[in-house]
Amino acid sequence: MRTSVMTLATLASLAAAVPRVEAQEIHTASQAALDAALQQHVSTSTADRETVLRLLERDEVKKVAGQAGLDLRRAERAVATLEGQDLANAAAQARQVERNLAGGQSTITISTTLIIIALLVIILIVVAV
Predict the structure, then answer these.
(1) Region 48-69: what's the mean pLDDT?
(2) Residue 46 domain flag
(3) pTM above the 0.70 mark?
(4) What does the alpha-carbon distance between residue 62 and residue 59 come to, in Å, rounded to a whole number?
(5) Cβ contacts of residue 115 below 8 Å, gap of 6+?
(6) Fewest CB within 10 angstroms: 57, 76, 93, 124, which?
(7) How far apart are CA 113 and CA 60, in angstroms?
């Protein structure tokens, strides 16, 4: 009787330890899908960097940065080090500023000035960290 119980306990523990067949299915993406996702990420990052750099080259931004005592050359170098969500946030703010300045506006509103200064400060803080 004791042998039967030991055998039954051993079989039960083995059955519990053996992974199920459906758990052994391989869930992988194809190489083409991985390459496409990587290319999309690189393209998005490149476009975001170009957006921020394009904004930093505008005369209006140079003027605001000069008045605030911020070094645009340092900010431009810092853009190359931004990644992930920090880069996406900076690009979103840069796009907002570009929309505000679109159409040849010659004046900068206070909100646009604040966005420019905030963008520059964020870039410099992220690089300093």
Answers:
(1) 86
(2) yes
(3) no
(4) 5
(5) 93, 96, 97, 100
(6) 57
(7) 9
